Amino acid sequence: RRTFDTLPFGPQAQTLYLSRQNATYMKRRKQLTAELITRLQLGIAMEDIEDFYCSSDYLDAVDSGLISDDDFTLMFSVDGAQLYESKQSDCWVYIWVVFELGPDKRYKKCNVFP
User: Fold this and answer.
1) Span 83-103, mean pLDDT?
2) What kind and span of H or E run contains 97?
3) Residues 74 and 94 sit within 8 Å (Cβ to Cβ)
4) Structural contact between residues 90 and 83, judged by C-beta atoms closer than 8 angstroms
5) For the residues of 54-95, what is the DSSP string, one character each?
6) For the residues 21-27, what does the mean pLDDT come to?
């Protein structure tokens, strides 16, 4: 018998906006994207690739309208493992990483969701 337990992400994401300080942290992608687009329009080259925000794939998606300021960017990471060598049982673990936060905060335990 197989079971699959999951926690809906929507209610978990809402908790990120409960504190004023964390709500401010959640604006990082929007602010950095606006800065990057302005720099590129002015012809200022990017000196350092700081985060995924600087990638051409992300900037192309923003430019084409696939990602807007109101969107929520996430990374879904999943991995499976066989629990017992002699049995056909397996376990799958997944996490959601919130890319609205900067890299200094997004991988903290309190910001990674099951």
Assistant:
1) 85
2) strand 90-98
3) no
4) yes
5) GSHHHHHHHHHTSS-TT---EEEEEEEEES-TTS--EEEEEE
6) 93
